[in-house]
Each structure stands twice: as C-alpha cells, then as structure tokens.
Amino acid sequence: MRFDIARAGSGLAYEIRQIVVVANKMQELGLTVCWENIGDPVQKGERIPAWMKEIISDIIREDRSFAYSPTQGMNETREFLVQKVNSRGGVQIKPDDIIFFNGLGDAIARSYSSIRSDARIIVPEPTYSTHFLAEVLHASFPPNTYRMNPYQGWQPDLKELEQKVKSHNSIVGILVINPDNPTGFVYPEEALRQIVKIAKTYDLFLIFDETYINMVYNGSKTVPLSDIVGDVPAICMKGISKEFPWPGARCGWMEIYNVDKDETFARYVDTILKQKMSEVCSTTLPQMAIPRIMSHPEYNKYLGERLRHYERLSNIAYNILKDVPCLIVNRTNGAFYMTAVFNEAFLNNRQTLPIKHDSVRNFVEHLVSQNIELDKRFVYYLLGATGICVVPLTSFFTSLQGFRMTLLEKDEDKFTWIVKTIAESVAEYIESAR
C-alpha cells in the first residue's frame, strides 16, 4: 500500500490465545495437550446445572429475547443490578449508570479508546492482557505500572503507585483487578481504601475490574468498590463469563459511580455511551437471564460448591509448588489462577526438557532458536515434553519470569498429576544446564 496503515501496537500478542496456535501445531504432530492456558470453566468440564439451562430455555421461548435491547441494556436487568448495589448502603446509582457490553473485552476496549491518547491509566504489574493491550493501543506507548510483589503475597506497592501518580501528570486513572488475574491476589479492604484515597487526593478516576468479586476463598475477605468509593468518580466492570459460568454469552457491564460529581468524567462516560450507540446494543438473551439466574434459590449453593472446589485445588497446587526451590509461589485466594515466579538466577537459554516425539522436539527447538523470553522458552519445552499448556508470565507485561495455570480441572487426581508434573519438569529443566 502507499503507506503503512497499521497503527502502533499492532505487533502485540494475546499470549493466552497465542499459545493455542503453538499447542494446536503440536497436536497435529501427535502430542496430547492438557489445556491450562485459558480461564474457561466449561472447556475444563464445568457442568452447567439443569435449573440454569431451564431458565435460558424459557427465555428463548420469549420473542423479545431475539430483539434488540436498549443501547445501555435491558431495563429490568439494570434495575435488578441497581438494587443489588444500592442495598449494600455504599454509593447509590440509577439504571442509567449501567451500560451493557458484548463481554468485558468490549467494555475494556471502549473505556480505554474513549480516553485522550495523551492521558494514561496506571495498571498493575503483572496485569491482565486485555487491559494492558487496550491501554497500549489507545496511547501507542508502553503503560505506566505499579508492581504486585510476589515476595509479599502479591501485595501491590501502594507507595510506588502514589509516587508515580504524583510524578506523572498524564495519569488520569488507576486500574485495579480484584480478585486479581493473573496472580489470584485478593485485595483487603484497607488496601482498597488507600487506593481510593490516592485517587481522591490527586483528582483521578478509578477503573475496577470485579469479574471475580464473588469468587473469594481460603478465608480471604474483600469488599466491592461500591462500598468504599465515596464520591470518587469510578467505573466498575462486572460480567457473567466466569461466575455463572457463561463465557460464550459475551455479556458484561459497567457500573458508573459518581458521574454527577465531575463534569470531565461525565463527558468521558458520554463518549463511551456514544461509541456504544454506534453498535446499537449488546446481546439480549444473556441480559434477560441475569436476574432470573442470580435470584434463583440454587444460585448461591451452586457458586459455593464451585468455590470449595477451587479452594481445594488452590491448596493442592500451593502445597506441591511451594517446595520447588527455584519458584516463588503464593496461595491463590480468589479467581481461579495460580501464578509461579522463577527466581531470576535460575533461568538461561541452554536449558531443555527431553521430548519423545522427534517432530515435536524439532518444532520446539525451532521456536526457542528465536529471541524469546526465558519463561516462554520453558513453557514451550514443558508443552512439548508433557503436553501441559500454561501461559508465560511475561505475557502479562512484567519482567518477572514465570507461568500462570488455572484451577479449573474437575478431576482432582488429574490436577494433582498436572501440578506434580510441572514441579518435576521445573526441577529437571533447571538442572539440565547446570
């Protein structure tokens, strides 16, 4: 073409999906793959209960489930969600303060693309890829970050956060993912209150991703942003993809807090809504299902059973991986991910794992012959040698070398085998180039 039409950032990769391309190639070469890369409970064997399927079947019989919804979302669903927020006694909202999207990926993309390119959102490090990619693409520059510390249970460095906010006038907002993806960290109330205080002190707004807010265990406790936000302008993102779980519904929403408290924030929210209008609306059927599923007498019991399962797997994984000398591992207390970090002194580009399939070994050797991150090198060898597919931690925009796996396997014996195999593979990999 007459000039380069791709905007800056087009070379960025979504490694959670990118690794699938590599794993599929290995499957074609004869490898059996165990998928630990993506947080899809259904793909990992989650059985959707009959009562939930009956609700959805009943909605399908209603003609209006095939129609457009209002641009901001189904009125009765927004009223239901407003009641849930307002009943907690914190910030009070109205139905017009809720906007539905085709999944939180859509909401995230629109929230960042509606910000001026010279204004930045500071994000945690590591951070979930969708937020990181959206922030980079909107500004065409690497993001500002505040570190999550694996040596302190993944606690965020709030002193660093405040210092960066104070030093960089381009920062207009703070992102918090609670519970966190990829680390599984659950923010205690006091840490959240400090973040709200920083936002208020420096005249910022907040973006909270609360996809997993009702998925907390191991005795941890947190609070939703609506309880503590006070009069700080904020966007809270929620969805049904993990909690129901119904990832294929592509249904998420923003709750807008204190839009009437700041004219600049109000104009920003209006920009998001106008972008949404160009799309007309989001999918209707899953919106209609939300009040009926969440208010069903079996819902909390069903969610509780799932959380107990994640808690068991969290402790199985922690008790195995914590004894691997070269790994830093924290117990997962929310969401369903386990992240392990390599001690930086242990990795090099000479380490290998034995791979039985000649064609798979040749493919892996080709991949690692390129200039890639050392944790990605380990991930490729782990995949080729064992069939276990995890995600390199550096793909979550961090210099920390490690990997993320899920806690979604329904067979606990198989899960134990997976974690033990990873632990043994790490030890063998480290020793291979001593």
Q: Look at the structure and give the CATH class of the largest domain.
A: Alpha Beta
CATH architecture title of the largest domain: 3-Layer(aba) Sandwich
Number of domains: 2
Helical stretch tally: 14
* Largest beta-sheet characterization: 8 strands, mixed
CATH superfamily of the largest domain: Type I PLP-dependent aspartate aminotransferase-like (Major domain)
Q: Which strand-content bin applies to the residues? A: 5-15%
- The counted number of beta strands is 14
The pLDDT mean sits at 94
Report the principal-axis shape: globular
Q: Are there runs of 5+ residues with pLDDT below 50, and where? A: none
Task: List its salient traits.
434 residues, alpha/beta, Aspartate Aminotransferase, domain 1, Aspartate Aminotransferase, domain 2, eight-stranded mixed sheet, four-stranded antiparallel sheet, 14 helices, 41% helix, globular
Concise synopsis of the structure shown:
This protein has 434 residues and is α/β, with parallel strands linked by helices.
